[in-house]
Amino acid sequence: MKKILITISGYKKIKKELNNLKNIKRPKIIKEIIKAREYGDLKENYEYHAAREQQNLIEKKIKDLELKLLNSQILDITKIKNTKKVTFGSTVTILNLKNNNKFKYRIVCNNESDIVNNLISINSPIGKGLLGNKVNDILYIKTPIEITKYKILKIEYI
Predict the structure, then answer these.
(1) Model confidence at 149, in pLDDT bands (50, 70, 90)?
(2) Model confidence over 53-94: pLDDT tens digits?
(3) Which pLDDT tens digit goes with each residue over 39-53?
(4) Which are the contacts of 27, defined by CB distance < 8 A and separation ≥ 6?
(5) In terms of CATH architecture, what is 77-156?
(6) Is domain 4-75 annotated with CATH 1.10.287.180?
(7) Global pTM value
(8) What is d(CA 145, CA 158) in angstroms, rounded to the nearest whole number?
């Protein structure tokens, strides 16, 4: 199976979430199931069924995260030769030439993308449009809404 690139911070975030699920949430839900069983008849025991459903969700999430980690290849952007081009993991400052708004994005894998924190997927329209370009390049990037003209102002490998 092909490995999916992931940044060090993305890997740490998944490990932290996995640790929380395994060591905090899983034991807590097991206690809730044991307590709910004490209420008697399981057929009509809402607390028991709710706890079991929550347990199933936790176990599914644990398996998903373990699979993500298993199929990931960590890429330390600080160890990549500075090619002066936008690559996976680089942080790019761009200028929307239509409205003069500046944006700063880090190019990450799909699993790490989080637009609120300026992490965009390498497979997103903007992510794809930025890859391989250099500072001062003018780009036309097609998004679902429109084609937007951008200028790359800065590329960082941090």
Answers:
(1) very high
(2) 999 999 999 999 999 999 999 988 778 777 899 999 999 999
(3) 777 777 888 889 999
(4) none
(5) Roll (3.10)
(6) yes
(7) 0.75
(8) 31
Per-domain residue ranges of the chain: 4-75, 77-156
Q: In the prediction, which pLDDT does 3 show?
A: 84
pLDDT at 1 over 70: no
Sheet holding 138-142, edge to edge: 119-121, 102-108, 91-96, 147-156, 138-142
Total Cβ atoms within 10 A of residue 33: 15
Distance CA 91, CA 106 (A): 4
CA distance 82 to 157: 7
Q: Which residues are CB-contacts of 124 (< 8 A; sequence separation ≥ 6)?
A: 113
Distance CA 57, CA 54 (A): 5
The mean per-residue pLDDT over the stretch 96-123 comes to 93
Rg (CA), the chain: 22
Domain 4-75 shares a fold with domain 77-156: no
d(CA 85, CA 72): 23
Kind of pairing, strands 102-108 and 4-7?
unpaired
Which of 96, 114, 113, 93 shows the shortest CA–CA distance to 105? 93
Q: Which residues are CB-neighbours of 2 under 8 A, at least 6 positions away?
A: 71
